[in-house]
Design a protein that fits this description.
Elements lengths: L12 H26 L9 H11 L6 E4 L7 E3 L4 E4 L9 H19 L2 H30 L4 H39 L4 H36 L6
Parallel strand pairs: 1-3
Antiparallel strand pairs: 2-3
Helix pairs in contact: 1-6, 2-3, 3-5, 3-6, 4-5, 5-6
Length: 235
């Protein structure tokens, strides 16, 4: 017996469509929310880079560099090199949105410095997740091409894809915790006033939706693979 529905349309495509729609909605939400609060200048006048430096120093972290990176909303903290990279829309900007994003990335640096367990788990599975993301679909397609003889390749492909899904799921608590730390620090440090903190919180909540959508999309894709190929009679 062949696998699934071949390359023709099948009902499980709706799972993929749902994942794509969720991703598009989340992306639109974060872009519109960031754009809105990028026009609101913080009363402190701190840039994203200045806010990041102050947060790191107040947290006793002196070995993390803050660097500028070209682009928009591609800000990130690299635990391997201890570098916090802020984009064009954050580094030299004084908006509450920019400061919120910078504080969020500082949250990751603080997680790293304090040994936050979910971040350690995520870092540990990064190599496996990268391999899984790159090799899973070639294995699955090879298995489909080979027909009944390709079952082992499909099973391996699903296993590797599961590793990528696990990475997405572990990312959720890491991102939520970083945002919670950012909101608390911004309020306690006086970098933002209370009214500004509430605005920044909206930006970070919108950003969190992109991770939720990515995780949901991956889970739906994994569910589709299991429906197509799991537990079927291969004879």
């Amino acid at each position: 017996m062949g696998y699934g529905y071949g390359f023709y349309f099948d009902p499980t495509y709706f799972l993929v469509i749902i994942g794509v729609v969720l991703s598009l909605l989340a992306s639109a939400k974060v872009k519109s929310t960031f754009a809105k609060y990028s026009r609101v200048r913080s009363m402190s006048g701190y840039t994203g880079a200045e806010a990041a430096q102050r947060i790191l120093q107040s947290s006793g972290i002196y070995d993390v560099r803050v660097e500028h990176i070209r682009g928009d909303l591609n800000d990130h903290y690299d635990p391997r090199t201890k570098v916090l990279r802020l984009s064009d829309s954050v580094y030299n900007q004084t908006s509450v949105a920019a400061i919120g994003v910078a504080a969020h990335e500082c949250g990751h640096a603080i997680q790293h410095a304090t040994g936050y367990v979910p971040l350690q788990i995520r870092s540990a599975i990064v190599p496996i997740a990268n391999i899984g993301a790159n090799i899973s679909w070639p294995l699955i397609l090879l298995g489909i091409f080979l027909g009944n003889a390709g079952g082992i390749f499909i099973q391996l492909g699903i296993l590797f894809f599961s590793a990528a899904v696990l990475f997405q799921l572990v990312t959720l608590p890491v991102e939520f915790n970083a945002s919670a730390r950012a909101v608390r620090i911004l309020g306690d440090s006086g970098i933002l006033y209370n009214s500004e903190v509430s605005q920044t919180k909206k930006v970070l909540k919108a950003a969190a939706l992109t991770y939720v959508a990515a995780a949901a999309g991956s889970v739906l894709q994994l569910l589709r693979l299991l429906l197509l190929f799991g537990g079927r009679d291969r004879d």
